[in-house]
Amino acid sequence: LENTFLRIDFYQLRNIYDGLVSDLPTTYITYIRDGRRKKIMDYYGAPATLRSLENRIETLVLSKKMKKIK
Q1: Does residue 24 belong to any structural domain of this protein?
Q2: Which of 10, 17, 49, 65 is the most exposed place for a label (fewest CB within 10 A)?
Q3: CB-CB contact of 26 with 42 (8 Å)
Q4: Who's near 42: CB < 8 A, 6+ residues apart?
């Protein structure tokens, strides 16, 4: 996952991807490396590389089993 952030040059992407459409889901990604922080809001119009990263993160999260807190 770390290599994907580096490969797509995450820090050089825009902070906001927005469009003149309504009722779409919004994805937020925050990445911190070596004390440097970048947050991206993707509503509409993000490049394919960013959407691929979003899908990869979602797949990773959904593959983990959640444990009930007692």
Answers
A1: yes
A2: 65
A3: yes
A4: 17, 26, 27, 28, 29, 50, 51, 54
DSSP state of 11: G
Residue 41: DSSP 8-state: E
Record the tokens describing residue 20, joined without a space: 């003149």
Domain-embedded: residue 65: no
20-60, pLDDT tens digit by residue?
A: 899 999 999 999 999 999 999 999 999 999 999 999 999 99
Containing domain of residue 9, as a range?
A: 2-56
Distance (Å, whole) CA 22 – CA 68:
36
- Beta-bridged to residue 9, according to DSSP, are none
Report residue 45 as tokens: 């119009």
